[in-house]
Amino acid sequence: MSQTFELYEDSSGEWRWRLRAGGDIVADSGEGYASKSGARDAVETVKGGAYDAPVEEQ
Q: What total number of domains does the chain contain?
């Protein structure tokens, strides 16, 4: 299944990201960023830091 991060500007002028897998949105930023680079930095954090994150039941 192909996965793609998308960066986009919302209607308020803030930058956001979403992760698509097989055409479905499986994750999103949940918040807007003032700059495109801020949203891109958040994507890099998710890509680099979550691969071995534990799953905790709440």
A: 1
